[in-house]
Design goal:
341 residues; alpha+beta; Nucleotidyltransferase, domain 5; 3 domains; 6-stranded antiparallel sheet; 5-stranded mixed sheet; 33% helix; Transposase-like_Mu_C; Transposase_Mu_C
Amino acid sequence: MKRWVKAYKENGIEGLIKKERKDKNQYRSLDEKTYEFIKESYEKNPDIKISSLYEKCCKFIKTFSDNTISYHTVYRAVNNLDDFVKNHASINIEKIKKKHQAYRIVQTPLNINIRDFRQNSIKKPYLYLIYDISTNDILNYYLSFTKLDLKKSAAFLRDTIIKNYKPNENFFIKPQNLLIDSFEIKNKRKIEQIKEILDIKIENYYEPNKDMEKFINFLKSDLKNLLKETHFTNSLHDLDKILYSYIFMNNIKNLNDESPFSSSGILKDIDKLDILLGSAKRKVQEYGIRFRNGIYRNPDLKQHTGNILDIKYNVNDLKEIKVYFKGFFLCMAYLSANENF
């Protein structure tokens, strides 16, 4: 009532006319479609400016609606995004208590100069780690001059499962879930195939693990001191030996783990792991199979000279390939001795 009296004294009858909101037709609360767009944009570029994200949102909304969105709404959405990601994640890692229920792959750059003999240049490698979410135990690691992608992650998972072989029971241990935060998974078809054959769900997960971040920071710091104390030749081979001692020798239980695990984590058919390998077709030449600038040989290939065969390969280890003829395994072909991968 007081506002009406004041408005009448200041503007007369016009002051009593209800004014239309300037932000009419703007979202005061976000719909799921727009929130998902903000979430994906933020995940791809966490350092994006709010003003840039606001412009992107306005253009996005115009593709399906005449409504607009306020700057404040976008700002509020980004501030709450961490909670949104956590609440909408398809897996709740806080509820994971059993070993081998879920693994996570992380990637970190190492500030160490290493010689890449293939390209005769000095590079800084990346360290891949895969760990059990329930315990933070490191299960495997890998050094590479290139960043993680789905092919490398799948091959890395395969190597880890093979390491988890139980000779007394004659089976392998596999996870039910694999979480990845180093890149955005786009090949949905491959993910579905892995789920169907291995019953392993692979998905993106971006919540930080502070304990693992601390471990990685300690590792990087300790590596500097270890390299000073050893006769380091700037090779991946030497760095690999140092990392093995650092990660595993002080934690023998990771190498001989006898902890109980779910029956859904048992894998008896190792051939099913082929879904985690890369695949290609190559023509057999008189000298063997040429693949990725390397020559692979096996005497059994000679009778197939001129034929195009299927091959499967581990992108992280190209010393050998698996060769198939009409869907059946034919042989292993090995990289020639004068080649170096």
